[in-house]
Structures are given as C-alpha cells and as structure tokens.
Amino acid sequence: MPLASGHRRRWAFGALALASLGIAGQASAADIHNIRLWAAPDHVRLVFDMSSPASANVFTLNDPDRVVIDVDSSDLSFNVDDLDLQGSAIDAVRTGTREGGGLRVVLDVNRNVAPKSFTLPPNDQYSDRLVVDLDYPGASAVSDPIDPIEAMIRDQEITAQRAQTEAVVQGNVETPSQVAATVEAQPHPKRDIIIAVDAGHGGEDPGAIGPSGTREKDVVLEIARKLKNRIDGTPGFKAILTRDDDYYVGLRQRTLIARQQKADFFVSIHADAVRSSQPYGSSVYALSQGGATSESARWLAASENQADLIGGVDGSLSLDDKDEVLRGVLLDLTMTATMNDSLATGGQVLDQLGRINKLHKSGVEQAGFVVLKSPDIPSLLVETGFISNPKEEAQLRSSGHQAQLAQAIFAGIVAHFRQHPPPSSLLAWQRDQGRGGASNEYRVRAGDTLSTVANRNGITMQALKQANGLDSDILRVGQVLTLP
After folding, report:
1. 390-397 vs 399-419: helix crossing angle, rounded to 10
2. Which residues lie closer than 8 Å to 103 by C-beta, 6 or more apart?
3. Integer Cα distance of 45 and 36 in angstroms
4. Handedness of CA 267, 268, 270, 275 (dihedral sign)
C-alpha cells in the first residue's frame, strides 16, 4: 500500500539514519593491512598490523587440529597466500567473514599448540597490533640442545658448588668434604664448555637501524652464527644460540635458555646507536652492582619467583627450602662470584676487540641490562660498533668484519677459560696432562678419594680444596692437585 506523505518522510529519515550507521560502522572497522610471521623452534608468532585497535578471541578446534582467531569489527586487506609458513606448525591459513560480522582466521596446524594473544599500541614504526603466539608444549627453544650426559655432569657440578657456598655461609666448611671423603675418583668426562650466544632483538623487534637501513637484528645474528661456528670448531667447546633465525625471544627467556642448556658463559651481541652519526667503536658491558642488587631484591621479593631462584624452572639450584636471610646471602655470594668472572672475561674480550676495531670505552662498562641478570652464569653484552655511524654501519654489513668481531669475542672468552677451566672440562684434563711431575703435585688415580689423598700427604681435606680452588667435591682420574 502506498505510504502517506508523512510516513514517507519518516521512512526516508529512518533509512538515512540506518545508512549513516552503516557508514560509521565501516569507518570504525579495523583494517588488517599486513600479517607478519616468525617461526622459532618452540613457537610461531603472528602479528596482525591494524589501522585501529580491535579485540580478538583465540581458541583451538580438534579433528582436524585448528587455531581460530576471531577479530571483532575488522576487515582484511592482506593476501594470506603471501605468508611464508616454512618452519612453522601452520600448514595453511584460511579466512572468512564471521556470522554477524568481523574477521575469522583459521590456522590449520600439524602439531599440538598452546595459543596466547595480546595487543600492542602504536609506536614510531608500527600501528596497532594483535600478537598471536602458538607455543609448542615440550619443544626445546634451541635447535641443537646440550647432550643429556653433559647436562648431568653440569648438574653435578652445580649441586656441588651450591653445597660449598651453603657450607661457607653456615660456617660448616667440613660438611661437603665429609661427603666427598667417601666418593672415589671418577673417570674424567672431558666435557665441553658450553657458551650461550645471544643475538639481540629479532622478529618484530629490528633493534637499531642504520642510515642505510641496516637492521641490528640481522647484523648481530650473522655475527652470532659466525661465533657459534668458531666455538663449535674448537675441541672442548660447544655453542648454543638463543635464537638461530629471525624471531623474537624475550629478554628473560634468553637467560632461561642459557640456564636450561647448562651454559658456562653467556654473551649477548648487539650494535650500538645514538642520534648523532659521530660516535664509533666497540664496547663491552657486565652487570652493574646496582643491577645485581635490584635483581636480588626483585627475586627475593616476588614469591612466585622464589621456587626458581637461581636454578630456573628445572629447580637444580632452587633455594625455596631456605629462609629469606640465607637465600639473600647465598644469592649475593653467587652474584659476586659471577660478576667477578664476567668482568675478568670482559677485559679479555675488550683487549681482543681493540686489536681489530676502535674502542668506544677503554674499560669494561657496567649496566643493569636484563640479559646480564643471571646470578649463576657469567655474562657479557658486547656492542660491536655504532650502526648509527655510516662507516661502522658499512663495516658491520661486511662478512669479513663480522668474522673478525666473532673471532675477537671468541678469543677473549677462550683466554679466560684456558686460565680457569671447569674441573670436568676437556681443557682441565689437557692442562693436567702436562703437570704432575713437581714435588708438590699429585695426579689422582682410580680409587682415590679426597680424604685418602689428604691423609696420604698429611694435610686436611679443607686445605687441599683451598689450595686447588675446588668448588666441586668430585675428583677426576688424571686430575693434578697442588699439595699445600
């Protein structure tokens, strides 16, 4: 039936209002104009670049295994076929419009995954972002993990070192020796010294960017790979990379990886940058006293972290069975020893860097970098040069210069460990092969214990340990002991 004129006017107004609402809804919809993906050994990360904020619901479906990402009030202007899925758990990506509006992204996955998501506000480089991480439960964060036998040997050393530190704190210096007195010398394991090599930044975090567009994350990864190859090619050493490709690893996750892999040393590689293009040169950083103090306070104050204090999630050095005062003292002693080793090694690395590059600072600097805050692992952060300086940016892009930097870092670390090899390491065994002939030296034989060696030479077990700087109570066949 035809509408009366008054009804026609009201209908036209209502239609115009609905059309306006539709236009406003379209205007407020978030445009997803890019999707970026990074595959890591233990997870895959997707980042949705959006024109405005949008909430999302992420869940899984079975038979077949899928991850569903529903993004409210959003449109997709990116071709998902352009995504490189190689190395990830994702076989295919499908998209569609949800019933009722919004975008649905379906990820077909080939393994069990645990999804989590969060949003990030705009910054100087990116717009609003939705980040979706698919973690692989039980997967190792490194592609070449430490051998289980070497891990067991390191666990024994770590346990002995902790027992020795506890005995000193409690004034009961004979307690560890009483245990060691009954332990016969074991065959020498000749284990590798484990170096954790950390390439800074990665994935959605490019780090500093040079005048010609060189990205810090790319340069330091190349140096880290060259350093790993140099370490792995040297008998008695093994390197693990905290990241071996272009993906991001959280700062504390980097030190956790080093601890899980029983690293003897941790070195993080970066390239410096400032607003001026003038500064140049390499720098080496160790943890500052203030940084160590604040880290101790953070861990001691946070109850959720007490269970993994020092030892990490594996609990190998957990102090949760100790009262707060003892935890604090043990942590302080451990961090002091670790900082001393870091500074000593830093001096060696700085000396080697000075032979192939200008130094920005002539001494080892100290700062509170998060990646240096591992209480039980000596750690350094190396700023290889200023990527903001055009000349050094060009050098940092050079494969030859990268190899020289890797060699300098390697030489400095090796120099330290040749002077102070861990007792169970191949380097310690090699050192002992040239010793044992002096009147004040004794070479450990099968069946020896700490007490038998001490009694045979008329000295106390504690004096024998002190003379040899033993923080482990385990003797190794072929080990050479200095007799005080």
Report:
1. 80
2. 32, 70, 71, 74, 75, 76, 95, 96, 97
3. 8
4. negative
How far apart, in whole angstroms, are the C-alpha atoms of residue 325 and residue 267?
A: 31
Strand, helix or coil for residue 427: helix
Tokens at 365, concatenated: 């600097």
Give the integer Cα–Cα distance in Å for 225 and 205. 19
What length does the chain have? Answer: 484
Task: Name 476's bridge partners.
Answer: 186
Within a 10 A sphere around the Cβ of 345, how many other Cβ atoms?
26
Range list of β-strands (E), 218-296:
237-241, 265-272, 283-287
How far lies 396's CA from each of 204, 390, 403, 441, 481, in Å?
21, 10, 10, 48, 46
Q: Residue 75: what pLDDT?
A: 92
Burial 313-342 (b: 16+ CB within 10 A, else e): eeebbbbeebeeeebbbbbeebbebbbebb
Give residue 151's pLDDT.
84
Torsion of CA 131, 136, 141, 143, to 10 degrees: -120
CA separation for the pair 188, 416 (Å, rounded): 21
pLDDT tens-place string over residues 378-419: 999 999 999 999 999 999 999 999 999 999 999 999 999 999
Beta bridge mates, 186: 476
pLDDT digits (tens, 9 = 90+) for 164-183: 666 666 666 555 445 555 67
Q: Which residue shows structure tokens 């065994």?
A: 429
Kindly state the helix (H) or strand (E) to which residue 393 belongs, with its residue range: helix 390-397
pLDDT band at 442 (very low <50, low <70, confident <90, very high): very high
Which two tokens mark 137? 């439960």
Nearest-CA neighbor of 331 among 313, 315, 317, 345?
317
Quote the CA–CA distance of 35 and 93 in Å, as a whole number: 11
Tokens 């800074």, residue located: 200
Q: What is the pLDDT of residues 51-86, one digit of tens each?
A: 999 999 999 999 999 999 999 989 999 999 999 999
Amino acid occupying residue 393: E
- Distance, in Å, from the CA atom of 83 to the CA atom of 37, rounded to the nearest integer, reads 7
Mean of pLDDT values over 307-334:
50
Go through 463-479 and write b for each residue having 16 or more CB atoms within 10 A of its CB, e for each that does not.
ebbeeeebbbbbbbbbb
Beta bridge partners of 69: 58, 105
* Residue 267 φ/ψ, nearest 5 degrees: -130, 125
